[in-house]
Sequence to fold (658 residues):
Amino acid sequence: MTAPLLQVRDLVTHFETRAGVVKAVDGVSFDLAQGEVVGLVGESGSGKTVTGFSILGLIDPPGRIVGGSIVLQNQELVGADRSTLRHLRGRRMAMVFQDPAMTLNPVLTIGTQMRLALAAHERVSAKAARDRAAAVLTKVGIPDAAHMLDAYPHQFSGGMRQRVAIAIALLNRPALIVCDEPTTALDVSIQAQILIEMRALVRDFGTALIWISHDVATVSSIASRILVMYAGRLIEEGPTAAVLRAPRHPYTLGLLRSLPANAAPGQELAQIAGAPPSLLNLPPGCAFAPRCARTDGACAAAPALVRHGDRALRCHHPIMTEVAA
Amino acid sequence: MSSLVSVAQVSKRFAPTLSVGERIAAALGSGPDPRTVHAVDDVSLYIGKGEVLGLVGESGCGKSTLGRIIAGISPPTAGAATIAGKDVMGGRRKATKATTRVQMVFQDPFASLNPRLRIGDIIAEGPIAHGLVRKPEARGYVETWLAAVGLARDAADRYPHQFSGGQRQRIAIARALAMRPDVLVCDEPVASLDVSIQAQIINLFLKLRREFGLTMLFISHDLGVVRHISDRVAIMYLGRIVETGRTGDVYASPRHPYTRALLDSVPKLVLEDDQLVSFHAIQGELPSPRARPSGCHFHLRCPHAAPRCRSEAPHPSAVGSDRQVACHFPLEA
Fold:
């Protein structure tokens, strides 16, 4: 087997605040193959965004990657210096953020921003930069792309701005794009357009994607594999269909059952009691134990992530009703 | 079912402040100002007593503006919203509320609670001001409502920043209910909450509805949530209601092409032969409410558009029982 595109091992990212150490990511490990699309699912504070930022080397003080390793195409990123990371960002890995209005510079035209993104990594003439920018804009579904290069971000709608942000991420054909809630700020009809286009783009370009979202339904519509995070740790991992059909971690099951789509209209939803724990003050042992119906004495000790074939699980009392045929 | 809330031909336009010259031109009949935003355009609907009406639409369609008109927060430019036959604005055009019979729960519980007041004061302020409870009894009254929304009684002594998003939304609901309203307008009340907390708040709404027989307008862009909680739904597009009907009927067989397209564009968590049920995108972008298409607002994105749709705006007409569609060529049932 060839080495995976991205290998994350025991990643630990902490934020040292006056109130104490926030353990935002606490020992996350996963692999990503070339061209693969994984979904990273979790609630706010689960560490999914910080995981994405850690991979791109975007953690600023008081945050710090405390331990672990991130290897992209055989290159270690943890501890790499700023210029190395600058060189990699945009060219071999890129990020699409939740709010496209924050990504784009409001005082530069789209064309200028795209030319700068190209010029950061290679010598390119203004004419060639324009042509390449227009070609990528067309790819992401922006009509009349050549003309739009002279427009400013405020002249675009939210959905169009996110398309521009995706185009900039694709510009240097990186091997990996981390998308952090890229459709959360958009309307459902625009979300559907972007999901469908993104699926086609990663197929055409052979780009690997980490799609971060709190919405299991959107993630499952694009990702072939799902990683579920809770309180800074991966708690379940597996092929999308398998996890949806037979979730094994009580939290994953609770999350899926609490969705209105999985209940008859008007009926009480199967809610998860309580609220996610504070990352300043995590319970010892399993972080989900205080909210879990299956908790017993064993849960006082933190469970390890155990792999079974293509699935992985961090639980002492997994749900194993369905035996794989 | 008798209707409690009635909205009759309500419009809301936001016009820019005119300069002196522009005002003279307008007085001389310069025609409508192209910068005017038609947020709500000739909308009529009703909510039966004890009924939950879901109001669905994409951002900018005017659903929040319509909610604020029904809640008496914002006066309509034309038409009127009435509760049990009484105009919520008291017949005035000023933004003062003539009735306390309607209350509102807002989307962002971080913005809707005064950070400098204790929870007890936040909840008691309205009822004391309107004579529902006397000051000495306010504490007990507040604790009753805190219990109703599932919070401990000592919450009354604390400040908003000491609570999580879900708990704050419970406080906002308690504040609304403490006014003993007949009608509750909820504007995206679960949109800013985490998935596991969303379920808790949806369950709270279901429970409160059973206990107090609340009549609700539930505004949301989330089709799954609306389906779960509403008896009837109204679908809004660019200021107009395009379809209304009983929730089950509308979701099972949408008659307006926009409703159909909207339902189809949501990724679903249903597996068929290990494949996710596919979803489809609506073509094109949402037009600006400042430059609305002529005729039917949806014709630019509609797969069934005909010449008539470009010139003539369709009016809501009855199709089947308790069902209205504003389309020249409604889909087959």
